[in-house]
């Protein structure tokens, strides 16, 4: 359907925030009339009719090597992270919270320590390695919960907004913009000081701040999709909104959703770290990476290992999650669609 | 039988309406293909979508008129009844075959989903395969599990046609279904649509900007210009002896086998008017070689020798002179 520029929805915001013009296919003009012989019987009784049809379908997508560069690094780090989160506490050599002041501030094994505490101990004599593994579980739990909650809510808003359009769309998008414009960490400080610091509240706070980017990006996908002929055909088939959303829209935004989720996973882990660093995150003595960083920052000159290891764990996980998200994004477009 | 009466459709912009279709009336009798022709932007798609009630706020608004399918006015049906009618009686074939199919939905499933789930699965499968085969998809049985991107444009269009026909609709609406295809494929799709129309006794509303295509497929043509019907009648008669200057120009623009390469590309000079709220006089006047002072009043559709035409200077001319005049 040819739609003039400037028509409603012809401007969309791409995922990178830039504006793009959508859906202005050039319809052929008169000039392109094809020289067909105008004979009425041409359509009928022609034995060559089907010989003219193309016998073989050429698969249009031959370029499968394009993504040969696989994300081994980020994949490996993420796998390690998830593994640590799942079974870390089981394989941890020591308790994550057991205080033993006689063991305080032992250095890592390669800096004069012992194998009993390979990454040293903290100011309360707790094993840094065990706490790192315990922290992985918290980061994983917080990260995944935030991603699932905000992804589900963002998807929900995007579907309603994009599919229904009109005033509901306008209202929901104002709301989304407002959420996007509000700095997450500020929101976190405000909410945490009202509701208190707990793991559960961290998850809720980050989800409250995180759904909006899903809503924005997926809504623009929905706007693109709902003008596609296959959706129009489904409507003509008599399909209702729920069916179209479930059957056509959600599957087609899934790859976008996964990309966003992967990117958000890193952001959520980082935010949890920042909140714990600020003392409004997962409360001690639970071993959160952010909390460990905060505690270790007091001993940077004397016991550098306290801040270094959680710092490395946090940065590597966030980096890997971002790299993975970028790779998925670069890969998700060219397959099957134009 | 589809009857469209005084259909008037507007698109909504922030604070104004632009009328894209004005008082359009025509019939699509049972078992007949009617071609809706006109330049790009003349409102053909809008008419087609309005019949299916797909134009609604906030995009646009069907301001008035009647769209009767076998006597029932579709525009006054409840949403639920309309959905049932769409499901049972109307098939739609869109322009771009690759966009017509969900990239994540297998070929077989596209057709399957239009069928009633009351039919047993095996029976549905057999039905789909025979339908696809009859539409020229070879080895359909082995291709039900393919995804659309594994199919060529022509093959996708056959699948789209199959989804439109699977439920046995009374009316098929095709919006430029061959425009995006190469000439050979175009021809075989047209043949196939024609065969289906005969076999099933379909009413078909065929939208095209290409009069040559309409000539091959359609028994009647309705020529639209700037949202209005300017001429309608039996295809042969309209093309052989066009009565409206615009139709004459369209006919003159059909490439002829005898054309020299340079002569093949003929365009009608000037631009069609933008859709506006109010209009007085003949919309074609600025581009019309025969325009005169009378044309500042709106010409009504009047019958002239078997064809209805809206022009103060309508006259029957023989084909040769008509073509010669526009060159
Ligand atoms: N969504 C839309 N919003 C506003 N104007 C539209 C929209 N779609 C079409 N139009 C306008 O309506 C007129 C008819 O368009 P259309 O029915 O698509 O013509 P055709 O199918 O003959 O090319 C054109 O002037 C076009 O610019
Ligand atoms: S009414 Fe006048 S301007 Fe319009 S087509 Fe006829 S001659 Fe031309
Ligand atoms: Mg069109």
Q: Any idea what the radius of gyration of chain B is?
A: 21 Å
| Topology, number of strands of chain B | 12
Helical content of chain A (DSSP H or I, runs of 4+): 55-70%
Largest sheet of chain A: 2 strands, antiparallel
Poorly predicted runs of 5 or more residues of chain B = none
Order of helices and strands of chain B: EEEHEEHEHHHHEHEHEEHHEEH
Class computed from helices, strands and strand pairing of chain A: mainly alpha
End-to-end separation of chain B: 39 Å
| Proportion of residues in extended strands of chain B | 15-25%
> Greatest contact pair?
A-B, 53 and 81 residues
Report the average pLDDT across residues of chain B: 86
The CATH topology of the domain at 140-336 in chain A: MetI-like fold
What's the story with the biggest beta sheet of chain B?
8 strands, mixed
Please estimate the helix content of chain B: 25-40%
Q: What would you call the shape of chain A?
A: elongated
- What is the highest CATH level, the class of the domain at 140-336 in chain A? Mainly Alpha
> With helices defined by DSSP (H or I, 4 residues minimum), what is the helix count of chain A?
9
The number of helical runs of chain B is: 11
- The CATH superfamily name of chain B is P-loop containing nucleotide triphosphate hydrolases
